[in-house]
Amino acid sequence: MILSCRTFVSEVITGYLPSLILQLFLKIAPPIMLCLSSIQGYISHSDIDKSACNKVLCFNIWNIFFATVFSGSVLYQINIFLDPKTIPARLAVAVPAQASFFIAYVVTSGWTSTSSELFRIIPFICSIIRRPFTKSTDDDFEVPSIKYHSDIPRILLFGLLGITYFFLAPLILPFLLIYLCLAYIIYRNQFMNVYEPKYETAGKFWPIVHNSMIFSLVLMHCIAVGIFTLKKLSLASTLIFPLPVLTLLFNEYCRKRFRPNFIAYSAEVLIKKDRGDENDATMGEFFDELITAYQDPALLPVHYSSNVDSLNSPLISSSERA
């Protein structure tokens, strides 16, 4: 009896507890990254969310993918990347061994997170607990907005798993397809009926998606090179070498061709906005208020005192000295 109890406790600790701790870290990471991005000096909500999105994505890829694939201490994981020549071979050995874990991760974490997004149970419970203390009415209800810094990295992580495992474990593809279909239906409903955007993103999160896809493709190429090398398929290894180069060249082309559109507005958009402002009747009042909206103290006129005696009087009067 005691032995069976110890076996059950050991299975719970070794099997359930690590995944629970991982999920807690994944829930805590987005608010922490958002706080770190807010103290970096960004002046807009979109820049803060974009920086936090990058941080959370790197955190998820490192702690879920690489930490699971290269199971071991932190120093062992760092030593792997300090020797770049052995990375493809070690990926070829370690990545296929974790295929069953990531299939289970897609089913458990992916499907569960999508379902919880539909029901929003935690925000509902928080609103019920907070209502008696805030004395808020239905008129004071604040429409929620989507958390780009936590939702986008989670979807991109599943995209990375699909790209890296589609030729190693094709069984993962049906589960990913179901997840993506559920995500499309549920997030479409949330965008239309639940969420209200706080700001116009202007597509600034798309470069993050593009960079993540390029990284996933290059990682997949490295794994393929390592597998073909281990299987001593020299012809396949030689033929796959141009693929990472072509992928990086395509990335460079996209960076030069499309990245300026996400940094600055195009001339067509600015001309259209200027023509719209010409027909706006309130623009005259806006320009009049713009003159006095802000005045630099260094550019304000200096007002000198008209009292001549003040030039000869002491700074501290006799009464104050007494």
Walkthrough of the structure:
Helix 7 runs antiparallel to helix 8. The model has no long low-confidence stretch (mean pLDDT 79). This protein is mostly helical. Helix content is 74%, strand content 0%. The chain has helices at residues 2-38, 45-69, 74-82, 87-97, 99-119, 121-134, 148-165, 172-193, 206-230, 234-240, 242-263, 267-278, 283-293, 318-321.
Low-confidence stretches: none
Q: Can you give the mean pLDDT?
A: 79
Strand composition percent: under 5%
In total, how many beta strands? Answer: 0
One letter per element, helices H and strands E, the order comes to HHHHHHHHHHHHHH
Key words describing this protein structure:
322 residues; mainly alpha; 14 helices
Which secondary structure elements does this structure contain, and how are they paired or packed?
Layout: H1 2-38, H2 45-69, H3 74-82, H4 87-97, H5 99-119, H6 121-134, H7 148-165, H8 172-193, H9 206-230, H10 234-240, H11 242-263, H12 267-278, H13 283-293, H14 318-321
Task: Describe the structure concisely.
With 322 residues, the chain is mostly helical. It has helices at residues 2-38, 45-69, 74-82, 87-97, 99-119, 121-134, 148-165, 172-193, 206-230, 234-240, 242-263, 267-278, 283-293, 318-321. It is globular, with a radius of gyration of 29 Å.
